[in-house]
Amino acid sequence: MGLKLENVIPWGRSFAEYVKMFNLTTDELKLNILDCAGGPASFNAEMTKQGYNVISCDPVYYFSANEIRQRIQDTYSAVVNGVKANLDCYVWQEINSPEHLGEVRMTAMEKFLTDFNSGRKEGRYLPHGLPVLPFNNYQFDLALCSHFLFTYTEQLLEGFHLAAIREMCRVSKEVRIFPLLNISGEESPLLQLVIDKLAMQGYTLEVKQVLYEFQKGGNQMLKVSPPK
């Protein structure tokens, strides 16, 4: 295992945020869903509680709940302080302050941590990372990827993005990626390059407006379907 926990900044979103980020309908929640790079989001825990099916994968799941909890505590203040230093980069509506943001994120991450041990035993949390996944072709109806691809443009180069999206399209019938901004709040310079190259290879791609916006301008997702 090459991942080191000290290189990870855990920051989890909630079920309600996932629904808005990915424009998930009630019928779509009933599908067989894969959450790629899920991290400490509460999406899996809340979906499972409601009787839906989802598998989350992330290399951070190699670590124990206590180790992840400690890493959250170690990095929490730095993340919130970073937001405080860049207030103008965010839309303060449903989340109304950096302190409120911290409360929302910690609530989601606590739900994840409470669910993690049982979810790992049940095979709902798997320690696998892009761009190689251990699933069968079209095993899932829908693959979601939140705050990973396009977010870390400087760390994850064009080749990684292309390989990751192709792999998600191999294991699922449709892929949705959110947001399309990099961590600095600008549209990822890789976005159009990736769209153009995948379109040339027969993939169907569409940028869609969503109901969620916290990063200013971060209200779009990319939908990708594999070649027919």
UniProtKB/TrEMBL annotation:
InterPro entries registered for this protein in UniProt: SAM-dependent_MTases_sf
Keywords: Methyltransferase, Transferase
Domain of life: Bacteria
One GO term (biological process): methylation
GO terms of molecular function: methyltransferase activity
Annotated protein name in UniProt: SAM-dependent methyltransferase
Species of the source: Floridaenema fluviatile BLCC-F154
Lineage: Bacteria, Bacillati, Cyanobacteriota, Cyanophyceae, Oscillatoriophycideae
